[in-house]
Amino acid sequence: ESWPLYVQLTNGKTFGCDFVVSATGVVPNTEPFLHGNTFALGDDGGLQVNEHMRTSEADVYAAGDVCTACWEHSPLWHQMRLWTQARQMGWYAARCMAAHALSEKIELDFCFELFSHITKFFNYKVVLLGKFNAQGLGSDHELLVRCTKGQEYVKVVIRGGRMVGAVLIGETDLEETFENLILNQMDLSPYGEDLLNPNIDIEDYFD
């Protein structure tokens, strides 16, 4: 069978495919800010920021891809250099600067309680929640998956009977319910695989 493209992996295997999506990651571009300054850098090279988005330099704040969040993270949040998170950080940094100027106290924003990202990919709605790829969980988790070809893909990450992450592709209408289940850390053990049973409207259970 002939394919438009072929990909050769480092193990020598070759696969035919229709197209290639390259995800190369993001490297913080801090170099323009380092000359003549003594910014503390994170392990990934980003400018270290505390829970108020302040760098190690006095009165200098950073947000988005250039920074590394160095506060103690919520168990359900992680930094991932995406435009949605950059926007949240920028908005929160502005609030922190205003609070500092007015000598007001400010708490870490709720958006840092749960990782979430919503976008579209090949015209499919994509929602990522929490530890959607079991980041940092090792083998201590299980996956529940539901897939309807051409319509939807649903993956849930369960740890200790509780939902800690999810991937939703397509018009699943599950994002609000799953977001609440992740935040509430409800014990879902009694439901087992019925959690993703398409014949059961789980919103009726958990709304």
UniProtKB/TrEMBL annotation:
- Molecular function terms, GO-annotated: oxidoreductase activity
What InterPro entries does this protein's entry cite? FAD-bd_OxRdtase, FAD/NAD-bd_sf, FAD/NAD-binding_dom, FAD/NAD-linked_Rdtase_dimer_sf, Rubredoxin_C
Which coenzymes or cofactors are required?
A: FAD
Q: Where's the FAD/NAD(P)-binding domain?
A: 7-90
Q: Pfam families per the record?
A: Pyr_redox_2 (PF07992), Rubredoxin_C (PF18267)
> Which stretches make up the NADH-rubredoxin oxidoreductase C-terminal domain?
118-185
What are the UniProt keywords, alphabetically?
FAD, Flavoprotein, Oxidoreductase
Name the domain of life.
Answer: Eukaryota
Family named by the database record: Belongs to the class-I pyridine nucleotide-disulfide oxidoreductase family. PYROXD1 subfamily.
Q: State the function annotated in the UniProt record.
A: Probable FAD-dependent oxidoreductase; involved in the cellular oxidative stress response. Required for normal sarcomere structure and muscle fiber integrity.
Q: What is this protein called?
A: Pyridine nucleotide-disulfide oxidoreductase domain-containing protein 1
